[in-house]
Write the structure tokens for this entry.
Amino acid sequence: MKIAVFIKQVPDSAAKIAVENGVVKWGDAPLVINPWDEYAVEAALQLAEKHGGEVTAFSMGGDSSKEALKHALAMGCGNAVLINDAALAAVDAAGSARVFAAAVKKLGDADLAVFGKQAIDSDTGLVTAMTARVLGWPALTLVALVAELDASAKTIRVERGVEEGRQVVDSKLPAVLSIIKDFGEPRYPSFMGIRKASKAEIGTWTLDDLGISAPDAKVSWPELISPPKRDVTTEMITGSSPEEIANTLADKIITEGVL
Ligand SMILES: Cc1cc2nc3c(=O)[nH]c(=O)nc-3n(C[C@H](O)[C@H](O)[C@H](O)COP(=O)(O)OP(=O)(O)OC[C@H]3O[C@@H](n4cnc5c(N)ncnc54)[C@H](O)[C@@H]3O)c2cc1C
């Protein structure tokens, strides 16, 4: 099997995000692999180990994104490719999907394209389904379990994690998957894996290498602003017993019109 997995580099989730003159800043917080994408890498590796095959990790971004790809290599991915082109600076979700679809086609004969649930920075949650649309492949999102997979018969059965519980879906391969936490804890990179990754040569694909023109962004972000600061006051409620404290709290909540 050939499996492509897409990972994004994002500011650490603990970062203090601020917007200065329309530019997003995150101080000296590190850039890390998008947490949801670690689950995608774990799922891709488990499927390759169970059904045979190799996982190639892709990341679209600047040179710094090679660090996120090295993390995927250290986890066990066989190959990693950076997609980097100046024309992708303000790409929108539809444009990203065209780029990722072109990368899957260039990899050739892929059975699965695996994504995280969403990116914690721009958080559109759109790219997975849009990539499936461009490829003309089925999109199996919010996958908690791959119950059955037959690479030769080109069939797959997954369990999706939905609000009501689990939904069992049968589909043909190739297919696009997005993975949720239920799939299983991402493995820690092994010492050998980290060493192999630190020496790895990560190639870069441009739009020319992908054989596509620069996507024109249909959605633009004319302005980025920090949400207005809220004036928050804290009041400690005291009393001689928990009941008295609870009553005082309830009165205040009702007076404030919260309830
Ligand atoms: C500086 C900046 C400017 C931007 N300007 C615009 C703009 O003008 N208009 C606009 O519409 N959008 C803009 N974006 C958002 C950009 O379009 C999205 O970041 C991009 O389309 C990916 O969407 P998402 O992060 O919401 O992915 P989601 O749909 O939330 O991510 C789903 C999955 O897709 C994969 N994925 C997402 N991004 C990548 C990546 N880069 N590399 C590899 N895999 C990935 C991951 O598996 C991820 O879990 C901007 C982003 C940045 C950082």
